[in-house]
Amino acid sequence: MKASDLFVKALENEGVEYIFGIPGEENLDFLNSLKDSSIKLILTRHEQGAGFMAATYGRLTGKVGVCLSTLGPGATNLVTPAAYAQLGAMPMMMITGQKPIKQSKQGRFQIVDIVDMMRPLTKFTKQIVDANNIPSLVRESVRIAEEERPGAVHLELPEDVATEDAEENYFKPSFRMRPHANDDSIEHAVRLISEAEKPLLLIGAAANRNRTSKALSKFVNDIGIFFFNTQMGKGVVDEKSQYFLGTSALSDHDYIHCAIEQADLIINVGHDVIEKPPFFMHNNGLKVIHINNFSANVDDVYFPQLEVIGDIANSIEEITKELTEDKVHCPAGFGTIKESLDENIYRSIDDERFPIIPQKIVADVRKIMPDDGIVTLDNGIYKIWFARNYKAYMPNTLILDNALATMGAGLPSAIGAKIVKPDKKVLTVCGDGGFMMNSQEMETAVRLGLDLVVVVLRDNAYGMIKWKQGGEGFDYFGLDFGNPDFVKYAESYGAHGHRIKSNKGLYDKLDECINSKGVHLIEVPVDYSENEKILLEELKNLTCDLVV
After folding, report:
1. For residue 329, which of 154, 226, 314, 428 sits 20 to 30 Å off, Cα-Cα?
2. d(Cα 357, Cα 488) in Å, to the nearest integer?
3. Which domains does the chain carry?
């Protein structure tokens, strides 16, 4: 069998459904082999978009998402998606082409050592030098990408190796048992939880798995314990729950910290240091139980007293079996704090200012999205407002990146989400800065016939950095820009363009577009004055009056 045919067959053997990317001349054998495959090629307009789509596929399915590029500049364009998947724990495989390695007459033209370049950004990177190694390398790459902690892998297929003959051979995935935490650590955790007077549950990024979501939901409801989450832990447990306190979108000095500071034990499930600390530990008597697939990374603000290392879902199930509601102190005072949190966080949702403030935008998006609808976010200051104000009712229904926190991922991520979940309503929220970094993927969405809503928040500036600039006392400088006519821009791709001209028009337009066919772009002028008023001034002077 031709090596490129064998590569495609090996990917089919792994259950690969899509390959996102842009082929080059070094991929032509692979492309020809893909022509009659069950795997669908999703041609994108930039390799970065392809990588974000593949990573999102991995995030939503738990299976490896695959993207493709040529050598040199095509491969270097995958650097940011590689970091995005690696830091965000999303299983993704990158396949890149290369010039012939056994006999080439093209010198160093376009040659970059991609394997070495990918080494610090991936869990595994390898050049294929023998066609007969393809099946084992594909199997090993997929295993490594999907295994906890998931991440990015890379295989380079040189042009001449792709044409070689190889024996047809495949490796089936082996049966794997998830490692269980030892009994002593489970017993110790049960004892600490039973002894605590004011325990809280924290849900982090690594808990965002379907099995873990079910186990944690049962734990919360059986025990009646109050919980909060990190940005990437949103929706793991339904945030409509009476026990949901809020999201730790900031590391300190937010309303949620009025509850955190009164806890004597935090059961920290799925903490991943790629996210900013959801709270700061001090030597003040607070105890922390670290429950995760991997050990804690200890630093000045995180030094748990107990680690329960093993499959998270299993650990939570075992702890739940040993606890009953009367064994755990769940003070009603946290409920009073919840009322105060809700009053402060969700105010201004009916504010009538125009341009529109973020709280109103978040509230209108939440109203029109069904419980299982998916919202993807690009990176900008609005991400903090969505993390604080948008209640997620199911896992992975608010997809944001609080790991690499890269701009440009919002639209490609939404395209990936719609491909994976075609029956779900999908909407992406982007700032005008981040949207323009990969706006060319509008053509991809239109070509694929997707039903998608793209909300572009226009403030004609890099708003997050401008907020930080002002917060540090600097003069505003170097962060303002112009924009195209977004309505005409959308229409030039064959999408539908809409511009919001009044506060009252946002909800109705969102409702209309989310229930319509095709790709819809909605330009929303945004008023970011609340950034300084609330996120700087109000929270800086915050005092917590309620006592549990």
Report:
1. 314
2. 24
3. 3-162 (3.40.50.970), 183-342 (3.40.50.1220), 346-536 (3.40.50.970)
